[in-house]
Amino acid sequence: MWKRIRILFIARNKEFYRDRSALGWNLLFPFLIIIGYSFLFGGNGQALYKVGVVVESSAAAKLLPPQFAEFRKTRHVEFVEFSSVEEGLEKLRHHRIDLLVQPLLKRYWMSSTSPKGYVSERLLASSGATRPDGFEKQSVVGREIPYVEWLFPGILGMNIMFSALFGVGYTVVRYRKNGALKRMSVTPVRPHEFLTAQVLSRMFLILITTAVVYAGCAALYGFSCRGSYATLFLVFAVGGFSMVALGLLVASRSSSEEFAGGVLNLLSWPMMFLSEVWFSLEGARPWVQKLAKLFPLTPMIDAARRVMNDGAGLVEVGPRLLAMAAMSALFLLAGSLLFTWRKE
Amino acid sequence: MGVDLTGPVLEVRALVKDFPEVRAVDDVSFAIGRGTCFGLLGPNGAGKTTTIEVVEGILRPTAGDVLYKGAPRTAGFREEVGIQFQNTELPQYLSVRETLQFFRTLYDKKANLEYLIEICRLEEILDRDNRKISGGQRQRLLLAMALANDPELVFLDEPTTGLDPQARRHLWEIVARIKSENKTIVLTTHYMEEAQILCDTIAIMDRGRVIAMGAPEELLAIHGGGASILLPGKLDAGKLEGVSCRWFEVEDGIEIQTDSLNDCIHALVGRGVDLSGMSVRSQNLEDLFLKLTGSQLRS
Q1: ipTM over cut 0.85
Q2: Would you state the CATH architecture of domain B10-221?
Q3: Who has the most CB within 10 Å: A9, A92, A335, B87?
Q4: Could you give the CA distance from residue A122 to residue A116 in angstroms, rounded to a whole number?
């Protein structure tokens, strides 16, 4: 059995690294995103900003100064309320909000490395809130996470998601469509051997390319992982596995690349937007936040950020690892039950 | 269970295969002896590929039995047979040599690599990417893949379809050599010439049923023996009424099959049919098929 899995694993790896365009894209894509974002935020910034507002009580809400009331009318800015400064600062440190304002005491905090924080501060200033009688800037206490370091785990997670879903899902469907699976079905290869080889091959490639991208970006931007690399590796391995399992589920029966591509896009695009790759869901509607938790990308990115940004250990990210493992088991079970060699 | 070494290698009994809206194989039975080449012939849609895929274990039969060496097929069947499909894409980004090594590794029993290369004439393309080989080279590689486990029984599903005459003859030579090594071959084709050259026994299928079976010479002796007259151009069908013959429109004119050549030509002359450009030949398997099914083979 292992002899057959090994040869299938090697053949698939050769197919991947000899396909220069696919290999190049897998390695280049995350770099392009990171570099692109650096340039983007060196200039004009984004149109949507999140400002945290510390409102200690409902009574205090009625005593907000007029300058702040003016600021609240600003379009394209979302205001998220917090009941304490500590809670708001925690969100600010993790770039879940761009600016934190305590209107009652006329104070505000911002991340010095966040381009969106800078723009939010300018918006606050333009509303007249930072005149001599206005708001006073406070310094953020505690370690601040550079914006690129916050963004990076999301980009890695997204790259893993695309690589796993399309690298396995699309490929297996193509094999079925062109008869390669049918050819395999008349050899002694069993479905579980074939699927195991596909999973192992994609996992190997995902972890190698992620390591290369990580090393490249770390060298480029000089950041490091605050937690252990072993924990980070485990997060990406389990997260990648759950994505590969989802890809296999999508590819279990279809022989239409167009259909499979559509389903994979249907899965990957909401995950990309709702799993906090680009922006946090802080302040989003509760059902949206609940929906995001159903996607395997959400716990993967969240756990990776905790390890990389906060130095979290295995115990802290354990629940997320378990959630991803449970999703993997579910996807694999359904995928193997539905799997067929032949076109329907 | 013991293995029967004296009886047929493969036996198919009353095989039926239904698809939702069609019965593709209808009560098909045959037996194939060791070291022989058995041909399943028929036009597209006759049911020969479905029959062979049921026998290969790809499709489940609706009814009937398939016996390999006198017993139902077991998991070991896949280790002992080699299969070449009609349409299979080769592994991408692998060389011909890597592809052969890949398929050999999948089996416990392996054919000698040098033997595979030599018998299928792959020497010159061994290090070439699969995507850069010609149609004939591709078919030879697919055949080598089917022989990767040194099988006792080889299934070849329309191995020469789409090949030019030279490449087709090359493949026939290879199949003939495999046959000479006492391997049993099951071949589907819609080329009668191919069947006549390679097969010891043929079964002609039409609409899911076997309509004739036997050695090519026997079939011709039983069902044929007449002649075919080819007349170029068009012919008024009314002029053939009452003449003891069968006629078909073919690509370059009218083909008339008859068991009594003199009577037929007399009748045609008597009805004023222009016989200039006429050619006459003995009937072959293709004519036999037309006679049995009343349809063109390569429709």
Answers
A1: no
A2: 3-Layer(aba) Sandwich (3.40)
A3: A92
A4: 10
